[in-house]
Design brief:
The chain is built from ten helices and twelve strands. With 266 residues, the protein is an alpha/beta fold.
């Protein structure tokens, strides 16, 4: 339980900087080091971010797809299992939507059957590091590689497969050096362009609050970050995906967004 509590506490700060109101935020700091930041300026449009797509592309990094195409890329972060993932997988199957689940070591160790189900149903399992540290504080390749390699090893123990090389920095904290190291290891770094405050287990948003954030902010090409630990997400996901479909959106896997020639899934 101590490990779960620690991971949950770390995850609690994962996307604090995305909790902004439309048309109220100034442009975000454009530093290439620090927290991934979003500022939602206009309904239905991509947010202003720390850095540009072109900058991230130098390091095989992404935060959204083609903003001319009404396609969404669903991703879920999870440091522990909170009882909602099976239902989330049921909804994804109903909508024929392939998602990415960015997991840490604790999740794979404690919920191997759910990890196997994710893979069996065509979802991507991505690397959220083994222990969910602040990776921007890691300045040497040996320590950086260790966090990713340990998670890869746990994944292979459970699935018998090599992990596809998609990486999401814990808490959205990164540095330009981290981006370079991830690229050198063959990873694609995946941020996001749509999220809301859904990670506080004891202070979950209401259904109305969730829709007030997720419907106006959705935009073509969005990489959507949700937490599968969220009770609210588990309850609204079917209705949410239906609403987005009614708005003309379809769902695709991250593997359809990014070149994957250097990934293997043996």
């Amino acid at each position: 339980m101590a490990v779960v509590a620690a991971v949950a506490a770390a995850a609690a700060v994962c996307v604090i900087f995305t909790a902004v109101k439309l048309a109220e935020e100034p442009a975000v700091d454009t530093s290439a080091d620090g927290n991934w930041g979003l500022s939602f300026q206009q309904e239905g449009k991509a947010p202003v971010t720390n850095v540009t797509s072109d900058f991230l592309a130098q390091y095989d990094g992404y935060y959204m797809g083609d903003t001319e195409q009404k396609v969404l890329y669903l991703t879920f972060d999870a440091g522990y299992e909170n009882g909602y993932t099976a239902g989330i997988l049921d909804v994804l199957k109903k909508h024929d939507a392939k998602a990415a689940f960015f997991l840490v070591g604790n999740y794979i160790k404690t919920s191997p059957e759910l990890v196997k189900r994710m893979v069996a149903e065509g979802h991507l399992v991505g690397n959220h590091t083994f222990s969910h540290p602040d990776m921007s504080e890691i300045s040497n390749m040996e320590a950086f590689r260790k966090e990713l390699d340990k998670l890869e090893q746990e994944y292979k123990k459970v699935t018998g497969k090599d992990m596809l090389k998609y990486y999401r920095p814990p808490q959205g904290k990164y540095s330009e050096a981290n981006l370079e190291m991830a690229k050198e290891l063959g990873y694609k770094t995946v941020f996001w362009s749509l999220a809301y405050v859904d990670w506080y287990e004891s202070d979950q948003p209401t259904r109305q609050e969730a829709f007030e954030k997720l419907i106006p902010r959705v935009h073509p090409g969005a990489i959507v970050l949700l937490h599968s630990t969220s009770k609210t997400n588990g309850e609204i996901l079917d209705e949410l995906l239906t609403k987005w479909e009614n708005m003309g959106y379809t769902f695709k896997s991250l593997t359809e967004l990014t070149p994957a020639a250097d990934n293997s899934d043996k």
